[in-house]
Specification:
By secondary structure, this protein is an alpha+beta fold. It has 10 helices and 14 strands.
């Protein structure tokens, strides 16, 4: 009898400890939600001058540095452009995308990482901490393109060093160079430009196969491969750039134009087809009639299943495309509110459970004492 009672008491003790840990975890989660809410309020005030609602702001917290400041990303939407900017910070290379800046959040204020370093808010030892948080972010989310801080010895650093040597004969410090990477082609070459500003008053046009390449003076785009640079016009004329690779360039051009709509973007390049490829796009009259008959028959036979799809397409095409295709902070807020109600209900259940277990424990202790001393 004593062994059974002792076993029951042990189980109850373990369960009570687990419940306490659960309650502490929920409290920590609540604190995180409060911090995120405060970051959104400060971002609305200081980054957007009160023009953006707190519900429309997305926040990602990467971690806390040794001085107590937090490394965060604050944005209105998730951009995920293919365009990347690279610059040096001490012995590191910092890569980021326009629209996805990472800030140092300290004393309710935001400091862009690059500005914070050159203003002395971030020192070299803190760069090492940021680099570690960067690696953790990439390991946890391999598709994340928020930021990357890697040692200068990496390939990113070599590109910046080669830009200094090729374009400036090494006379310009790598600390003063910003490189724009538009993407990588199928042969491994990288499409880049040095962001030092062009002249919009002087524009050039070149015909490359079935494509037209338009650019401002000083904004030429180069292929970078094997530590050498090649202007894309010369690369095409010399046979280094094939027609199929021109199509890849055209896609990267479209992405750069999308990124250029962001206020943080510096430049884009324009490579577009002279005559759109109409192969298999416009069917013959006979094909059109046959397709029309097939669509009519399938719609008649499966009307109950096609009608909901039609409604869904109508909603997505008539609504605000940006709001329907990109995650918004308001949807996150709704989810959090619903989950808070569930947590409150769960906490009430936990309190009731602890009370019942306490009563049972008291009864078992009383039974044990009675069995021991009042046989």
């Amino acid at each position: 009898m004593k062994k059974i009672i002792s076993l029951i008491l042990s189980v109850l003790f373990i369960m009570s400890v687990s419940v306490t840990g659960f309650a502490a975890e929920r409290e920590a989660t609540s604190d995180s939600a409060e911090i995120e809410t405060q970051i959104k309020k400060d971002a609305s005030e200081h980054l957007y001058n009160g023009d953006v609602s707190v519900d429309d702001i997305m926040v990602t917290v990467f971690g806390t540095l040794s001085d107590g400041s937090m490394l965060v990303n604050v944005c209105r939407y998730s951009s995920h452009y293919t365009v990347t900017y690279m610059c040096t910070l001490g012995d590191y290379v910092y890569s980021y995308q326009p629209g996805d800046k990472v800030y140092l959040y300290k004393n309710n204020m935001f400091y862009f990482v690059v500005d914070a370093y050159y203003d002395g808010i971030i020192n070299d030892s803190m760069l090492k901490e940021i680099s570690k948080l960067s690696e953790e972010s990439l390991n946890n989310s391999p598709n994340s393109k928020y930021f990357h801080l890697c040692p200068l010895e990496n390939s990113e650093g070599q590109i910046i060093k080669d830009v200094s040597e090729y374009f400036h004969d090494g006379k310009v410090s790598i600390d003063d160079i910003i490189v724009i990477v538009f993407g990588t082609l199928s042969d491994g070459s990288v499409l880049i430009n040095e962001a030092y500003g062009g002249s919009p008053d002087v524009t050039f046009e070149h015909t490359l196969g079935n494509y037209k390449y338009v650019y401002n003076a000083g904004e030429e785009v180069y292929l970078y491969k094997n530590n050498t640079f090649r202007f894309i016009v010369d690369a095409y004329n010399d046979g280094m750039l094939s027609d199929s690779m021109l199509k890849e360039l055209s896609i990267l051009s479209e992405e750069s134009i999308k990124a250029y709509s962001d206020p943080d973007s510096i430049m884009a390049f324009c490579l577009y087809p002279i005559e759109p490829d109409t192969t298999d796009i416009y069917p013959t009259e006979a094909e059109t009639q046959a397709t029309s008959v097939q669509l009519t028959e399938s719609t008649t036979q499966a009307q109950p299943t096609t009608q909901p799809v039609t409604v869904a397409v109508a909603e997505s095409t008539t609504g605000d495309v940006t709001n329907t295709t990109k995650p918004s902070a308001s949807s996150d807020t709704v989810i959090n509110n619903n989950s808070n109600g569930a947590v409150q209900t769960g906490q009430n259940s936990v309190i009731l459970f602890v009370f019942v277990m306490t009563v049972i424990s008291a009864a078992l202790v009383f039974a044990l004492i009675k069995h021991r001393y009042y046989k």
